[in-house]
Design a protein that fits this description.
Layout (H helix, E strand, L loop, with lengths): L1 H10 L1 H14 L6 E5 L5 H10 L4 E6 L2 H9 L6 E5 L12 E7 L8 H11 E20 L3 H14 L7 H11 L3 E12 L2 H5 L11 H4 L5 H15 L3 E12 L3
Parallel strand pairs: 1-2, 1-4, 2-3, 4-5
Antiparallel strand pairs: 5-7, 6-7
The structure holds S-adenosylmethionine.
């Protein structure tokens, strides 16, 4: 289930747009060794492997043993090595990679600065680190009753989204504090014009997300989803969410 959700998200045109921004700022080249930190299904790791080619390679590290196994099953023969591990305690030597990609992972870790410190440690001086993360506080809807939207947003912020709900907009300051140079910070505002498109990325409009995950006061989820469906039917549904792409160069 997690695998299918991740794969569907990765195929969404708005997530692909975010990834293109990340790709352009990381600027991977042939022959590099790259780390995909929190690699999920491994799709980005394989994309990066296509760029670094036969003389380079990609280390795909994820905390979840089952996702790592699924990523191995999806392997396409490119130069990717899949490892189970924690981005906050990487089992890799210092200065061993030319660059790092870390997409929508730090919002889930307890200590993002520690994880960033690990990514810097394993990256050679002059290497690039590309962090991509969501600012869940930016989530907004139009086309739904205003009062209801506010109640639902307040609920999802506290109960539904990852604990580090503001991670995206904190990335730049974290890299500044870590001493990285040549920073770029790009907020990509993802637009969802139908409930079906939004449901791929936003669990709070996905009718398949069950009541127990919502943990809402009785009836709120159903009332909200009925409004989402009605807005979709009338063509007035709109959702926006900003995902940040922040990249910097390791000094030295
Ligand atoms: C939203 S998914 C993103 C996966 C992938 N980067 C992508 O963009 O498709 C978050 C991923 O972070 C992984 N993750 C969470 N905490 C982690 C940690 N401490 N170390 C390594 N991976 C972690 C999860 O297992 C999951 O695969």
């Amino acid at each position: 289930m997690v695998l299918e959700v991740l794969v569907a998200m990765g195929r969404h045109p708005e997530i692909q747009r975010v990834r293109r921004v990340g790709y352009d700022s990381l600027r991977p080249t042939a022959g590099q060794r790259l780390l995909d930190a929190g690699s999920g299904a491994g799709d980005v790791a394989r994309l990066l492997a296509a760029t670094v080619g036969g003389d380079g390679d990609v280390l795909a590290v994820d905390y979840s043993a089952s996702l790592t196994a699924a990523a191995v099953d999806r392997h396409d023969g490119s130069n990717v090595r899949y490892l189970t591990g924690d981005v906050s305690a990487l089992d890799l030597p210092d200065d061993c990679v030319d660059g790092v990609w870390c997409e929508r992972v730090l919002q889930h870790v307890d200590d993002a600065d520690r994880a960033i410190g690990e990514m810097i440690r394993v990256t050679r001086p002059g290497g690039r680190i590309c962090l991509i993360d969501t600012d869940w506080d930016s989530l907004a809807f139009d086309g739904m009753p205003a009062g209801l939207g506010e109640v639902v947003l307040a609920h999802v912020r506290g109960n539904f989204t990852p604990r580090q709900h503001d991670m995206g907009r904190t990335l730049r300051r974290r890299l500044v504090a870590s001493g990285l140079s040549r920073l770029t910070a790009t907020p990509v505002t993802c637009f969802f014009g139908t409930p079906e498109s939004a449901a791929v990325v936003l669990p709070m409009v996905n009718p398949q997300v069950p009541e127990e995950v919502w943990a809402t006061p009785p009836g709120l989820r159903d009332e909200w989803l009925a409004c989402v469906e009605a807005a979709g039917a009338s063509g007035t549904f709109l959702a926006v969410l900003t995902i940040w792409v922040v990249t910097g160069t390791v000094p030295g």
